[in-house]
Predict the structure of Dihydrolipoamide dehydrogenase.
Amino acid sequence: MAATGAESGEAVAESGGYEYDVVVVGGGPAGENVAGRVAAGGLSVALVERERVGGECSFWACMPSKALLRSGHAVTAARRVDGARQAVTGDIDVSGTLRRRDSFVDQWDDRRQVDWVHDAGVALFRGSAWLAGSREVMVRDPDGTTFSLYAGNAVVLATGSVPVRPPIPGLDQVDFWDSRAATSAERAPESLAVLGAGVVGVELAQAWARLGTHVRMIESGPRPLPSAPDFAGDLLEAALRADGVRLYSDAVVNGVSSTEGSVTLELADGTEVSAERLLVATGRRAATGHLGLESVGLHEEGAVDVNEHGEVRGVPGGWLYAAGDVTGQAQLTHQAKYAARVVADVVVARATGRHVTTDAFGRYMTSANRHAVPTVIFTDPAVAQIGYSPERAEQDGHRVRTIELDMASAGAELRADGYRGRARFVIDERHQVLLGAVFVGQDVAELLHAATIAIVGEVPLARLWHAVPAFPTLSEVWLRLLESYGL
């Protein structure tokens, strides 16, 4: 039960456990960042992880899904440029794509992340963990041994999220893919039915379609990406259809059944959709089950509610914190890392006697986690967005002006013949600052950080006029924005 790779905490003889300044539950991006930053601040830290250090993003989500998408994107990009398309004479090498994906996840071996944890001076415990009362974490290791970790200063929950399984009759009787199975598959299935048209659904539908799989997508609304602007969903729908994906819109699934080698979805209109594999991609929820939250007076179900410092509300004493997906905030690796850095800084400050005020983090953390969350959907076209929609901005009392533009510029035209893309900007008319931005098109992800800086920094549009975009690049869309605004 001893820690590996770092000095163990102080032994607590009467209980057979160990005491550390901080105990972090969950070794994904949030947990790693909390642990490393707290250790750098001079505190002793224990990190508990039941699966792979690095978490969902490293092994089953961000990295493998983007690796699966990249081969198809590269070939398609070449085919959009006269002179290059003539050189594309064959199909995508599926086995090569899968080998490249495997390299990004280190063949699902977490030794590199473990080495990083050790080098950071963090004690790593393998096992499942749960709260057993104030500042106490119980751990059951892979051998079944149970022991305690005591936190002198803080416990941080960073257990991430898990897929939602919709209550569809027959679903629990069939063998279906979740996102993990879809990103780690060893071969391309002949056919794939995708249930859900959110981020996971559209990315994996396009990835496998471009690797030669016949894909059917079942969506509950009129277009993909219901949380994005309609024009984004429309452009992506056209691209998915061009890739051979068959879409079933406004669909209701009444039941699921299977025969040998096939899964069938029965739709409310009588249509049957069959495929070799079924991917269920209907969202994720905070992973709070079996965390022992009731031992500290919290409900076991639902996300953990935190304040602007990441401190869990409803638990007296200021010792319990949470960061990442488990808080129910934006389910994004970069946001989890941001929240982790805030939590770590607050924990270290309080442990070393420094006063922490809401001024230090409150305003900007609230904005960053609610109104300034940058999101990229890595399809082709990509969808990059941040900030307010026009409707939400008006609800919050802003006087709004919305400007929509085609992504038409020399930079776009050079990038691809017949480049298709669109942008939308939401502007606060009182203060003449940007509140939100959406970019849709090939390679628009790299435009997003400029919008993030403009929104978080509340940069006046008149000042942005002097931030001259380089020619010829996609960034010329910023010039089009300012011209359309009348500056």
The mean pLDDT is 94. The two ends are 65 Å apart (CA to CA). The chain has three domains: 10-58+105-162+285-370, 171-282, 381-485. The domain at 381-485 is CATH 3.30.390.30 (Enolase-like; domain 1).
